[in-house]
């Protein structure tokens, strides 16, 4: 990690910090291509000048137009410019979550706009300037690190994951509250889809990796990945919540009780656990990092729908994922339906 970050050009390593970086924002229903467009337009009260700046092609043109109409700048501009800059820079990061996470990832190092042209917003090129933009960015960074969804997870890294169905991009995250490691498998260009197909899949070592037929997990995992590839774009979140959140060894204990006749809910309760211990709140952080606020959710579990809605993720559609019913798991699936409210066609369970 750098001990000091200098930025200026939007094409530089930390160019996303620049107001000239293309990050659209919507304010009072109006779309602005960059925060620079908005900031320069606020110098004026003339609606025609404002519209010209708003709809011009680039932030460089927006800057030039504001100089062209300098004689029309509002009288109170020097008094209000700092507040306007604070507002629009914060909106830039709030409305572009991937940039917000990048800002947080800079840690606590000092951020400076290294501009020889500006000793108010920048450092004047010699480090003697006020660096007001850098100070705003650091204040926003501090605020974001204390608020959801940014304080829920930490992005670690990403890499390609070839599979039998296609090549996914695998993102690694750490959940802050528990320290658990979670994955997001991203296929295709999810930014081109208003509500991508998404699956929240809790880890099941026995079903996913050991081919167990006493649950439907492995079958659902395979089908979900196939469905996402067939769709052309989508995400599978692989969540480290083994055994509905009780862990692998307790899951084995629960299996023992099930071998003796208990259903999955009774087994968990006899061990002192709730029927389902999973928590999906942190998924909001992962989805926000990926720029997703609306999903088509592949699930039979209404609790997942409810959990995402409570996390302010809009469920545009629930997509059924009925896969893997067999003689070993019919009782398991019936218990899911009867005691946990899972939504199955009865003919699926009885087939």
From TrEMBL:
It holds the Pfam family NADAR. Its cofactor is Zn(2+). Pathway: Cofactor biosynthesis; riboflavin biosynthesis; 5-amino-6-(D-ribitylamino)uracil from GTP: step 1/4. Zn(2+) binds at residues 204, 215, 217. Keywords: GTP-binding, Hydrolase, Metal-binding, Nucleotide-binding, Riboflavin biosynthesis, Zinc. Residues 7-144 form the NADAR domain. Its EC number is 3.5.4.25. Binds 1 zinc ion per subunit. It catalyses: 5-amino-6-(5-phospho-D-ribosylamino)uracil + H2O = 5,6-diaminouracil + D-ribose 5-phosphate; GTP + 4 H2O = 2,5-diamino-6-hydroxy-4-(5-phosphoribosylamino)-pyrimidine + formate + 2 phosphate + 3 H(+); 2,5-diamino-6-hydroxy-4-(5-phosphoribosylamino)-pyrimidine + H2O = 2,5,6-triamino-4-hydroxypyrimidine + D-ribose 5-phosphate. The active site is at residues 276, 278. GTP binds at residues 199-203, 220, 242-244, 264, 299, 304. It comes from the Bacteria. Residues 158-319 form the GTP cyclohydrolase II domain. The keyword Hydrolase applies. InterPro entries: GTP_cyclohydro_II, NADAR, RibA, RibA-like_sf, YbiA-like_sf. HAMAP family: RibA. Catalyzes the conversion of GTP to 2,5-diamino-6-ribosylamino-4(3H)-pyrimidinone 5'-phosphate (DARP), formate and pyrophosphate. Belongs to the GTP cyclohydrolase II family. This is GTP cyclohydrolase-2. The gene is ribA.
């Amino acid at each position: 990690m750098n001990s000091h970050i200098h930025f200026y050009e939007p094409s530089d390593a930390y160019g996303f910090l620049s107001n000239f970086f293309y990050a659209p924002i919507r304010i009072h229903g109006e779309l602005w291509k960059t925060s620079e467009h908005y900031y320069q337009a606020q110098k004026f009260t003339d609606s025609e000048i404002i519209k010209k700046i708003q709809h011009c092609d680039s932030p460089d043109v927006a800057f030039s137009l504001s100089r062209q109409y300098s004689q029309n700048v509002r009288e109170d501009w020097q008094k209000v410019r700092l507040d306007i800059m604070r507002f629009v820079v914060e909106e830039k990061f709030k409305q572009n979550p991937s940039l917000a996470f990048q800002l947080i990832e800079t840690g606590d190092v000092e951020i400076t706009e290294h501009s020889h042209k500006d000793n108010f917003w920048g450092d004047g090129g010699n480090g003697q300037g006020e660096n007001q933009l850098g100070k705003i960015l650091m204040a926003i960074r501090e605020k974001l690190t204390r608020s959801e969804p940014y304080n829920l997870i930490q992005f670690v890294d990403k890499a390609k994951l070839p599979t039998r169905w296609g090549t996914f991009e695998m993102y690694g995250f750490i959940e802050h509250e528990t320290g658990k490691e979670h994955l997001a498998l991203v296929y295709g260009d999810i930014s081109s889809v208003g509500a991508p197909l998404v699956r929240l899949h809790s880890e099941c070592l026995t079903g996913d990796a050991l081919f167990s037929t006493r649950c439907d997990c492995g079958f659902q995992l395979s089908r979900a990945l196939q469905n996402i590839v067939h769709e052309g774009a989508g995400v599978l979140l692989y969540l480290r919540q083994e055994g509905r959140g009780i862990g692998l060894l307790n899951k084995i204990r629960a299996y023992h009780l099930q071998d003796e006749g208990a259903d999955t809910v009774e087994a968990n309760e006899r061990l002192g656990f709730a029927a389902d211990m999973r928590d999906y709140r942190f998924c909001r952080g992962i989805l926000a990092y990926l720029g997703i606020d609306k999903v088509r959710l592949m699930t039979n579990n209404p609790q997942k729908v409810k959990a995402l809605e409570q996390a302010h993720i809009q469920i545009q559609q629930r997509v059924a994922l009925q896969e893997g019913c067999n003689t070993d798991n019919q009782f398991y699936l019936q218990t899911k339906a009867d005691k946990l409210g899972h939504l199955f066609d009865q003919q699926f369970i009885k087939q």
